[in-house]
C-alpha cells in the first residue's frame, strides 16, 4: 500500500462562502455527511485499542501497512483536504506531508513519534476540519492543487464525500491488519456486525470458503 501524493504547502486561500443553504437543499445533508465521516474516524482509532507499541507499528503486508501508520496518514490527508483546500491550513506543520518528504513517510510511525502524539494529532485535525465544515456551506469553493487541473476546483460537499471514502477505505485496511495482529474483529465499538463470535463457527466457515476456492480452481 502506498500513500497519496504529497500535498504542496503555501496554497492560496480561495473565496469562501458563508453557511447559507441553497433553495431546496436538504438542511440535514451536512449533518449526514459529518456523521459518516465521524463514524469512520472513530472506527479507525478503535482498531488501535489494547495493542502494544510493537503491534501498533509492525508491518503486516509486503508494502508495510501498519495500524499507527494508517492513522498518521489519514490525519495528514484530512488536514490537507479539510484545511488547506479551503484556505484554512491546519496550524501545525506536518513534515511527512510536505512535497519534499520521503516516499511513504506518512504511512509509518518513527520510534520518536508516540501513539499518544499521533492519536492526539488526529483528534486535533478532526476539530480543525469540523470548524471548517461548520463555517462553510456545502457549495463553498475550494481548490486541490495536487489534483489534475481539470478537477482542481471543488466544493466542500465534494471534499466531504472524498474524505468519507478515504477514511472508510483505510478503516477497512485497519480491520484486516488488526485481525492479523490478534484476531480481533468488528465494525466499530459496540457493534461487531458479525454473524457469530464462536471460533468453531468461523473455522467451519473458513474451511467451506477454502474448499470452494480449490474446487473453482480445479475447474
From TrEMBL:
SUPFAM superfamilies for the chain: DinB/YfiT-like putative metalloenzymes
Region annotation Disordered: where it falls in the sequence: 1-28
InterPro entries tied to this protein: DinB/YfiT-like, MST-like
Designated name of the protein: DinB superfamily protein
Source organism: Streptomyces indicus
Amino acid at each position: 500500500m502506498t500513500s497519496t501524493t504529497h500535498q504542496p504547502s503555501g496554497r492560496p486561500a480561495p473565496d469562501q462562502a458563508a453557511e447559507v443553504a441553497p433553495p431546496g437543499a436538504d438542511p440535514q445533508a451536512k449533518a449526514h455527511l459529518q456523521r459518516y465521516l465521524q463514524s469512520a474516524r472513530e472506527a479507525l482509532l478503535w482498531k488501535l485499542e489494547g495493542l502494544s507499541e510493537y503491534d501498533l507499528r509492525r508491518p503486516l503486508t509486503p508494502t508495510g501497512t501498519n495500524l499507527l501508520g494508517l492513522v498518521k496518514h489519514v490525519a495528514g490527508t484530512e488536514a490537507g483536504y479539510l484545511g488547506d483546500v479551503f484556505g484554512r491550513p491546519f496550524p501545525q506543520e506536518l513534515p511527512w506531508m510536505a512535497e519534499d518528504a520521503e516516499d511513504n513517510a506518512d504511512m509509518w510511525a518513527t520510534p520518536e513519534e508516540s501513539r499518544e502524539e499521533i492519536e492526539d494529532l488526529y483528534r486535533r485535525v478532526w476539530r480543525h476540519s469540523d470548524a471548517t465544515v461548520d463555517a462553510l456551506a456545502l457549495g463553498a469553493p475550494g481548490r486541490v492543487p495536487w489534483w489534475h487541473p481539470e478537477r482542481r476546483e471543488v466544493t466542500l460537499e465534494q471534499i466531504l464525500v472524498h474524505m468519507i471514502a478515504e477514511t472508510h477505505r483505510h478503516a477497512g485496511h485497519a480491520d484486516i491488519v488488526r485481525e492479523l495482529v490478534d484476531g480481533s474483529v468488528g465494525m466499530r465499538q459496540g457493534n461487531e456486525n458479525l454473524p457469530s463470535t464462536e471460533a468453531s463457527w468461523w473455522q467451519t466457515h473458513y474451511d467451506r470458503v477454502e474448499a470452494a476456492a480449490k474446487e473453482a480452481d480445479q475447474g
